[in-house]
Write a structure and sequence with these properties.
heterodimer, A: about 350 residues, alpha+beta, Phosphorylase Kinase, domain 1, Aminoglycoside 3'-phosphotransferase, Chain: A, domain 2, 2 domains, five-stranded antiparallel beta sheet, about 15% strand, B: about 140 residues, mainly alpha, about 70% helix
Chain lengths: ~350, ~140
């Protein structure tokens, strides 16, 4: 149910909530829903107060979503990294399911002047691809470098055993595939077996893993600057190679096999990441995490397809279940052949 | 696998029929319309090639499964009896699901037996299956 069909317009509910929160007479204007991923409803609006107008973003839990994520964890991720890397400023978290906006939500500051790239368009960064790549992998390195025990995220995330990061990740996503698969998927089954037989080295350190760090999940200004890293719904503590591999996954390369995330060559990206993180990206382990990325992707697309069929309502789920799984099957099949050639059992 | 053609078109129809909330006007609705258009382009590809792709894949699976029967057991001979029915996408998918389940079992058996040569045959089949199933987004280059 949307606010519009529940009697009270969403803008009015927001005004009442913010007026109470800030002890002010807040006026909400320019409220508009924007595409913001499939796992939360996202709205932009301006809040007018006695002190002036402020651009804000509302992220509200949907009725059904791509993956079950905890909005508290996402909110704390913004708190953890605001001022460290470019992210929106977290303002307030409201977790009551029957609260002022009918579902849990949080509000954060809006970053104006930037846009996310569509992940499936060629050359989105044009002549600024090198500059974006430099910043993209530097930010990722800084995220990997952060001291997890000093972050607000430590309030709610588990600290895994470095030797078990790969198994935890694989167990989680394999369970989703087995739970939600509608049609037998022999390629991802083969990939999961291979991953178990050829595990990577233990994580060199436990880091914050964004979980969906890739082209399309940050705002850029069209002139080579990254203004905000978004979509932290899947953040967790784990092996930082998970994020590096995901960002280098061919699905996000904008159809340019020579440039990871449509930006720079992979060797340059890894060098930047190593410089900023102070870590070494072990090549053998990175291969494992790359194949894992395709498995994780396939799990996300599998659950999207299943959820779409429940009510046929969310087209973001439909397209997620239609196009990317076929590319990830191809990526997995190519990778499996290559790894077996290289000696994987 | 992916949502079926009827499911996808039902979703598009529902999206186009729904009365949008006031706050949905603008960019959100424009994006939804673009998504409807993209889904229809992909569905058109699926309708144009989906039958031949599935007939090819089912035949390839039957061939690999039947060829493995002498070494891996008579259970795989049942693949020959899994027919393509009336060649609708739905019946082809039903047959494909049965054949894929057998292939998963066979691949596990080949791996357990350290049958490297057959393992590579199956991996090559996976590549071919995945390549034939790929869809092309409007405006996109060939996948790199």
């Amino acid at each position: 149910m949307t606010a519009a069909d529940s009697g009270e317009p969403l803008s009015r509910r927001l005004e009442q909530y913010l007026s109470s929160l800030w002890n002010d007479n807040v006026r909400v204007i320019n409220l508009a829903r924007i595409p913001g991923g499939a796992s939360r409803e996202t709205y932009r609006f301006d809040a007018e107060t006695r002190g002036g107008a402020r651009g804000l973003i509302l992220r509200r839990d949907p009725v059904g979503s791509l993956i079950d994520t905890d909005r508290r964890v996402e909110f704390l991720a913004y708190k953890s990294f605001h001022g460290v890397v470019p992210v929106p400023e977290p303002i307030v978290l409201e977790e009551r399911p029957d609260g002022p906006l009918q579902r849990p939500f949080f509000i954060m500051g809006r970053i104006d002047g930037g846009t996310p790239a569509s992940p499936f368009t060629p050359s989105p960064y044009v002549e600024h691809a090198d500059a974006i790549g430099e910043v993209l992998f530097a930010i990722l390195g800084r995220i990997a470098h952060a001291d997890i025990d000093a972050l607000p995220l430590a309030q709610c995330l588990k600290h895994p055993d470095p030797a078990e990061c790969w198994r935890n990740a694989l167990d989680e996503w394999e369970a989703i595939i087995l739970r939600d698969e509608r049609h037998p998927q022999p390629i991802v089954r083969a990939a999961m077996r291979r991953l178990r037989r050829n595990p990577p080295s233990p994580a060199s350190r436990i880091s914050v893993v964004h979980g969906d760090y890739r082209s399309g999940n940050f705002l850029h200004d069209g002139e080579g600057r990254i203004l905000g890293v978004l979509d932290w719904e899947m953040v967790h503590f784990g092996d930082p190679l998970e994020d590096l591999a995901w960002c280098c996954d061919p699905l996000w390369n904008h159809f340019d096999a020579g440039r990871v995330a449509g930006t720079i060559e992979e060797t340059a990206a890894i060098a930047i990441w190593e410089r900023e993180s102070g870590l070494r990206a072990d090549p053998a382990s990175l291969k494992w995490w790359k194949l894992f990325s395709a498995v994780k992707g396939q799990a996300i697309w599998t659950t999207a397809a299943k959820q779409f069929t429940v009510d046929h309502a969310n087209l973001a789920l439909a397209i997620s279940g239609l196009y990317p799984p076929r590319r990830h099957d191809r990526i997995m099949a190519d990778t499996l052949e290559r790894l077996v050639e290289e000696g994987w059992t | 696998m992916t949502p079926t053609v009827p499911e996808l078109l039902a979703g598009c129809a529902a999206a186009l029929s729904a009365v949008p909330a006031t706050e949905d006007a603008g960019l959100f609705t424009a994006t939804r319309l673009r998504t409807v258009a993209t889904i229809n382009v992909l569905v058109a590809q699926e309708c144009a090639t989906g039958t031949s792709v599935r007939i090819w894949e089912n035949a390839a699976l039957r061939s690999v499964l039947a060829g493995a029967a002498p070494r891996y057991g008579a259970a795989y001979t049942e693949a020959a009896s899994i027919g393509d029915g009336d060649l609708s996408l739905a019946t082809l998918d039903d047959a494909n699901a049965k054949l894929r389940r057998l292939l998963i079992r066979l691949h596990e058996a080949a791996e357990a037996a350290d049958d490297t040569k057959f393992d590579r045959t199956i991996l090559a089949l996976y590549r071919e299956m995945a390549t034939r199933r790929e869809l092309k987004l409007p405006g996109a280059r060939a996948a790199g």
